[in-house]
Amino acid sequence: MTPTVVLPVIIGGLYAAGVYLLLDRSLTRVLLGFLLLGNATNLLLLSAGGPSGLAPILGYAEADEIGDPLPQALILTAIVITFGIAAFLLALIYRSWRLVRQEVVEIDEEDRRIARRSATDADDIDPDDLAPEDRPAMHEDTFAADADVERGLAENYAGIPSDDVDLPPTRGRNR
Q1: Which residue ranges traverse the bilayer (predicted)?
Q2: What pTM was computed for the model?
Q3: What is the rounded distance in angstroms from the CA atom of residue 168 to the CA atom of residue 171?
Q4: Considering Cα of 41, then 43, then 49, then 53, what sign does the dihedral take?
């Protein structure tokens, strides 16, 4: 049997498409990318298992004619793991959709603010020397702001339990 280049090209294409989809902000595309990576891994394990052979459990074949059952067991394990993580990602997508009516991960302004800081060592920073917007949470002057936030939440969402997924969509985003 001569080796073919088709299967490695398909595996490489599935890995490339999977990684490309994983890097997107849409959670649905992340799920599809993860499924492509799982399928590419299954094909890689199948191709690494060597040529097919006779079933080892029957016992009527010679040792060199028996197929290796280890790649098949690894593929079954990979299928189960891929299914479990896909179910978890589907739950995340559903929860995101129920909370904010979108499944795209937005840019976090807090991350941008931290990235703009200088490369100062965290041990050298005194929180009292920082601007109020750069101070860490729970600093002594942030308690007033926390009380304002709590008061605003109590006014806007009176009577709605905090763990209710039927909250209205976030304000400020009109699509």
Answers
A1: 6-23, 30-50, 70-94
A2: 0.58
A3: 8
A4: positive
